[in-house]
Design a protein that fits this description.
mainly beta, 4-stranded antiparallel β-sheet, elongated, 7-stranded mixed β-sheet
Length: 120
């Protein structure tokens, strides 16, 4: 019902910046919370940041003060502005959407993932 298409990943130098985008389509009226997750090779997927429809945010301690999550509800698009990037930020980044479907709160969709590599 919800399709998510990510873009913006790439190779950047330490200390550089990158902005990821995630466009949602389909049953977008069902979406409440959207978020970014990342997974490095050999490691568990971890939450990076989330944002509710009303704009409430939370961040992983590792990215707090460096990353900013935002959303444009009119465009149904989620963003992640990443500044002061570190090599340990290297991972595949995934966006997701959560909301009510058939009376239950659940994950409505996942993006395909976009690779972020921070290296000199």
């Amino acid at each position: 019902q919800v399709q998510l298409v990510e873009s913006g990943g790439g190779l950047v130098q330490p200390g550089g910046s990158l902005r990821l985008s995630c466009a949602a389509s389909g049953s977008i009226f069902s979406i409440n919370t959207m978020g970014w997750y990342r997974q490095a090779p050999g490691k568990q997927r971890e939450l990076v940041a989330t944002i509710t429809r009303s704009g409430s945010t939370n961040y992983a301690d590792s990215v707090k003060g460096r990353f900013t999550i935002s959303r444009d509800n009119a465009k149904n698009t989620l963003y992640l502005q990443m500044n002061s990037l570190k090599p340990e930020d290297t991972a595949a980044y995934y966006c997701n959407a959560e909301g009510i479907y058939s009376g239950y709160y659940r994950v409505l969709g996942w993006g395909q993932g976009t690779q972020v590599t921070v290296s000199s």
